[in-house]
Structure to design on (528 residues):
């Protein structure tokens, strides 16, 4: 038996090449898509989180580069659309993307360059998982990581409409959906995500959610002392908090950061379809089945009265007789 | 479309459907969901680690190269590169170029030997180090003998050689950088830069 992997507490660490027993297993799964009778997870792990401090980001894209290298994706060589955002959007080959937006601050008159690292937020209440109809294709671990299992993905794309942040992308060639895994394979052996390790300004840091929250608070205090009165933490409660969260200079206006939703929620269509509609549908099926059984017990076969019978016989005879005459004529 | 389906067989089929979906919702669909966790196996396990320095710029970040196979007989294949946390310069971090180093190493157009584009040719061809260094020395000497500017218009000695340019490596030690600078400047060469600024 190999040594158990250490708990993931930081991204500032060199991975071991020794075989380690991964610390993410079936026992650590707290939710799985379309699996209502999932056994209670026996392995409770400390919640992890990745904090992205937008005020420290220099927009170098080392995270994007490290992400593509670690996940062995090869984003298409794109074109320049007039901004530094490249490729223009997340794709099945680009799990994280620096989105550059320029904003003229009406209070100070300054032009501010707001650079947001877009990617999966790893919601505590994941809309993708709720929407997914394929058993076990999306799982959530007790440490907060929401992971896609491509082998079980049926390529329906429901997770895309279920995501409040518009993150998952369908691969046009493999027909399965993919997104950031928070480097679950690295976290499983006690490492942090590749993007957080590469970040040269420590704008991306990784650790336990408690540690990251404490760090985020010190960052907000620092920003406030530098005149960013509205600095704050973006950890939206509409989806139960997220395991990738931001420190924003302008936390009162998250839309400034390339349309970061102010109050993200799982679409009502998904909530309705997977909640009440499911119960109503099952009830309808049940009622129909009960009705069928009752009908087969109490329902009588159609009876024919003696008059109807004789009338019908006469009709038939008349018809046959007529036909017989016609035939003779021919 | 014309389906030949009697009333009786339609009811049979419908009944079978109800039974199947009821069994499904009673929990017999579990077989599908076995082995839920599907974490990718860690792909650096059992690879060989080699410490090195990023070749891009003079910051000289420490990197760890992960390779498979035996490098001693030239059979190693580079699998991954990432920053070295133990290195005092970068403490594990890298820039976007450094983070994508693996592709630089494995690039098909990577320069692995000296090459020369001969006068009138439109293609580079391989040349041995000895021949390359001899040719460079010869060309440098000839050019310097011909074009060295010893005095400017006012008769002030300047010893300036403006017709040769030198591009040096960036990932070198301070000592190598010092020696390189002294040699190049002693020859009076003005056009001198390093690869990090290209």
């Amino acid at each position: 038996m190999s040594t158990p992997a250490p708990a993931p507490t930081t991204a500032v660490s060199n991975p071991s090449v020794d075989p380690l027993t991964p610390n993410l297993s079936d026992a650590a799964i707290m939710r799985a898509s379309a699996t209502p009778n999932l056994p209670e997870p026996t392995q409770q792990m400390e919640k992890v989180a990745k904090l992205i401090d937008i005020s420290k980001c220099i927009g170098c894209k080392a995270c994007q580069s490290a992400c593509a290298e670690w996940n062995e994706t090869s984003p298409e060589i794109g074109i320049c659309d007039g901004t530094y955002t490249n490729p223009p959007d997340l794709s099945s080959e680009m799990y994280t993307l620096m989105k550059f937006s320029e904003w003229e601050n009406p209070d100070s008159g300054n032009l501010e360059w707001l650079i947001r690292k877009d990617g999966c937020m790893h919601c505590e209440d994941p809309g993708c998982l709720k929407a997914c109809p394929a058993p076990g294709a999306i799982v959530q671990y007790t440490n907060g990581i929401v992971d896609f299992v491509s082998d079980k993905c049926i390529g329906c794309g429901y997770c895309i409409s279920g995501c409040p942040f518009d993150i998952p992308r369908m691969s046009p060639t493999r027909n399965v959906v993919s997104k950031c895994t928070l480097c679950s394979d690295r976290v499983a052996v006690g490492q942090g995500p590749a993007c957080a390790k590469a970040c040269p300004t420590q704008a991306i840091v990784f650790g336990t959610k408690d540690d990251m929250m404490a760090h985020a608070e010190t960052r907000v205090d620092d920003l406030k002392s530098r005149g960013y009165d509205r600095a704050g933490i973006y950890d939206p409660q509409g989806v139960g908090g997220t395991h990738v969260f931001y420190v924003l200079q302008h936390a009162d206006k998250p839309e400034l950061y390339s349309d970061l939703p102010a109050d993200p929620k799982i679409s009502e269509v998904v909530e309705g379809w997977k909640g009440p509609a499911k119960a109503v549908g099952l009830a309808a099926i049940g009622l129909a089945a009960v009705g069928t059984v009752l009908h087969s017990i109490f329902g009588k076969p159609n009876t024919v009265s003696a008059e109807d019978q004789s009338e019908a016989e006469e009709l038939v005879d008349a018809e046959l007789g007529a036909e017989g005459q016609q035939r003779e004529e021919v | 479309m014309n389906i030949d389906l009697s009333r009786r067989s339609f009811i049979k089929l419908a009944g079978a459907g109800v039974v199947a979906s009821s069994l499904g919702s009673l929990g017999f669909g579990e077989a599908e969901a076995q082995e839920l966790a599907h974490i990718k196996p860690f792909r650096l396990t059992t690879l060989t680690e080699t410490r090195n320095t990023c070749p891009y710029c003079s910051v000289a970040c420490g990197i760890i190269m992960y390779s498979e196979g035996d490098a001693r007989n030239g059979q190693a294949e580079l699998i991954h590169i990432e920053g070295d946390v133990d290195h005092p310069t970068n403490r594990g971090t890298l820039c976007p170029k450094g983070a994508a180093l693996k592709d630089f190493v494995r690039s098909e157009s990577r320069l692995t030997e000296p090459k020369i584009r001969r006068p009138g040719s439109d293609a580079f061809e391989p040349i041995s180090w000895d021949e390359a260094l001899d040719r460079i020395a010869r060309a440098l000497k000839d050019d310097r003998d011909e074009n060295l500017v010893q005095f400017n218009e006012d008769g002030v000695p300047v010893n300036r050689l403006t017709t040769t340019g030198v591009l040096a490596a960036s990932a070198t030690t301070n000592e190598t950088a010092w020696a390189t600078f002294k040699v190049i400047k002693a020859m009076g060469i003005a056009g001198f830069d390093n690869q990090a600024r290209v």
